[in-house]
Amino acid sequence: MKHVTIRALARELNLSVSTISKALRDSYEISAETKQRVLALAATLNYTPNPYASSLRGKKSRTIGVVVPEVADSFFSLAINGIESVMKAMGYHVLICLTHEQFDNEKLILKEFQSGRVDGVLLSVSRETLSGEHIRDLAAQDVPVVFFDRVLDEVQAARIVTNDFESGYAATAHLVENGCREIVYLGISESLSISNRRMEGYRQALADHRLPFRTGNVVACTNDAAENYKTVKKMLQRKAPRPDGIVASVEKLTTTVYQACNDLRLRIPSDVKVVCFSNLEIATILHPSLTTITQPAFEMGRAAASLLLKAIKGNNVMSAEMVIPSVLIPRGSSTR
């Protein structure tokens, strides 16, 4: 006989997995009528809980999972340092998992965590993530999830973010104030919350400075460095209107922009000025030095870890949100 799962009960009753799980645990959050419906169907279908998973969830692993798109980006490296500084002091191990910007990888990782391997999860979603069902499924197994940096708005969970809209605005306004009139925004996803909010700030800054917004100046990049190079190079070869400013929304695009400008013999900042969202330590020694929107990565990691600890202890932090501001640091790549 096929094993009946919580997900099967949820489909049959048109309820969420979380609701089914809470009803089976006799949670006060679920109405008596709903509990009766769930228990009746569970009895009819001979539903039995997974004792192995249940026993694991009843114990504490003293491990938390950190799920990030990559670690090559200095933001995530610094954030992980912040996370570990809190968790190790409290006797927790930190398990780092990379999605490589792929939604399928993210789903598999979170599904594995349902077994009780971790007590909680810190998550920064991939550029492909559009649906949050896998996150809700994990939370339904009493594994708390806290977003940091990259969030999924459709999922109600605690989050630690930075002021992406204001930062996108500041980067663009800085370029305008230094003489740019044709500013390009380089994004990495049309759905990723941080990319969209930074772009909204970019658009608002253009409007406030009475500059036109052109759809052709929003350039979609990917996770492929070679393709990004071709895209940015083609953009910089435009005759009219020729770009004279670039806002790069993620750190990985720094090398792409500098390489393309060098190969086209475009001088930074004389021919094109550049601002990048980046925490690169070598920003000061690049030629020219790189103007950055520097995110409080270490502080965000510490704050996210502290919030997750509260959730693991049973505190209701689902609606908690903390915004830690980023800082514009002008350097040689954008000044007159």
From TrEMBL:
Pfam families given in the database record: LacI, Peripla_BP_3
Cross-referenced PROSITE patterns: HTH_LACI_2
Entry keywords, A to Z: DNA-binding, Transcription, Transcription regulation
InterPro entries found in the cross-reference section: HTH_LacI, LacI/GalR-like_sensor, Lambda_DNA-bd_dom_sf, Peripla_BP_I
Domain HTH lacI-type: 4-58
UniProt keyword Nucleotide-binding, yes or no: no
Keyword DNA-binding in record: yes
Name of the featured protein: LacI family transcriptional regulator
UniProt organism field: Chitinophaga alhagiae
